[in-house]
Amino acid sequence: MLHIIDDEEVIRDALSWLARSRQIAAHSYESAEKFLTALDRPMAFDTQGDCILLDVRMPGLSGTSLFEMLASRQLIKRLPVIFLTGHGDVPMAVDTLKRGAFDFFEKPFNDNKLMDRVQEAMTQSRQAGSAAVIHERLATLSGREKEVLDLILQGKMNKVIADQLGISMRTVEVHRAHIFDKMQVKTAVELAGILK
After folding, report:
1. What's the whole-model pTM score?
2. What angle do CA 17, 23, 120 make, to 5 degrees?
3. Which of 16, 67, 89, 174 is most exposed, with the fewest beta carbons within 10 Å of its own?
């Protein structure tokens, strides 16, 4: 989902049209405050990735202030920000990029280049989302399941794992089944694939 935050309706409409031309779902907000209100509701991240196109200067909360809030919430990997401005300068662009912005475009911008960067940002967002899901699943494993997981990833067989941990082979099988269930995989190869 492309989130367009700009106080100019004509810009929001043009960017929404550009997004649709690339089959990208878009939602626009006339202010940073309206976006924050939407963000504070339970938000489902898009499975195709998310990206924010953010105007630097807006009445009320500025784009740079909103960006700082997103960074403090550690959301800029899941919600990469591309700044848009008609009032930018090189130091401002460098500063925002150093602080984690995905990119910085001056108005007027090249439509194709902007949309290419949006798609790259959405890919990054999707990858960050996948990593977050894997991390959440790993957090559900018990200490013993994590030990078994490490040995599975080393390619050890159940008997070897049982001997190494001083537990029965049946207990290893139970732990392996719990690990596969919690990690939502069916095989050790699939498990290794998602954890690489």
Report:
1. 0.71
2. 100
3. 89
Taking a C-beta distance cutoff of 8 angstroms, is the pair 103, 82 a contact? yes
Residues in contact with 139: Cβ distance below 8 Å, sequence separation at least 6, in sequence order: none
pLDDT digits (tens, 9 = 90+) for 49-107: 899 999 998 989 999 999 999 999 888 888 999 999 887 677 877 888 888 999 999 88
User: Residue 9 CB: number of other CB atoms within 10 A?
Assistant: 10
Backbone phi and psi for residue 181, each to the nearest 5 degrees, phi listed first: -65, -50
What token pair was written down for 63? 């784009």
Give the C-alpha separation, 196 to 184, whole Å.
Answer: 15
Q: How far apart are CA 78 and CA 19, in angstroms?
A: 19
Tokens of 22: 């690339």
The residues pairing with 138 across neighbouring beta strands, listed in sequence order, are none
